[in-house]
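Re: beginner question about structure tokens

> Can someone show what the tokenized structure looks like for a real chain? I only ever see the sequence side.

Sure, here's an example I had lying around. Input first:
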Amino acid sequence: MEPLPSLKEIQTWILENILSEVPVSKFAKAYVKHRSLKENVKHHRSKEGVLTFDIATFFDSVQFEDIEKIFNELGYSEVMSNLLAKLTTFNGCLPQGAPTSPYLSNLVLREFDSRISDYCVDNNIRYTRYADDITFSGEVKTLKMRDLVEGELDKLGLNLNSDKTKLRKSSQRQMVTGIVVNEKAQIPKFERNLIRNEVHFLSRFGLKDHLRKTKNKRDNYLLHLLGKINVALHINPSDKKMEFYKAKVQEIMQTDT
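And the corresponding structure tokens:
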């Protein structure tokens, strides 16, 4: 839920002048400047096993008291901490559309990240967290890691989404936050095929006929397609096929403008 403009301005001020000054764990890869999806996945390439967990209803499960505690630990009085928590929560939890919510979620999980990463460093396991997606790689054992993660989350009143727990061996397709990481990081094959097909039919029929045949009414269709190609190249800059597709789409864009 998007906050009202006046409240959003206040939340943005809180984010820029209070929260962004507080460091978060180096293992947290989302919602932090100079960290990205690409950095999250690169740590898990070419590993024996990749184990992924998902925190259930993450933002909704972070309580008002958790946010009030953060401000109190930053040195604000109980009255001020209570006010700041009221300004950055809605119905007693983190609102999805508030600019402060992502950074606050990282601060809520600082101790979690610290304890989990300490264990992983001691046991030669790679660990990253991208928002509510938790990833381990190396010689990982599901039951032991699940017990550890569930125990630490329980301290925060959080739970795992058991349906999304997955262990993938090197002989399987290993996915981290939607990216394949077996030998090289790249978008999944089905997404590559979709891009390939779209570029093929665009080149064969032209933009207008392709959109008519596919009944595609998306605004800025070519920019959207180019965006998907750029994501693939961001993940794997040496992807020659995506470089070719990008050149073809740019050529079509010049022709049709």
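Each token stands for a local structural state, so reading them left to right follows the chain. Strands lie at 49-54, 126-130, 133-138, 166-169, 175-176, 179-180.
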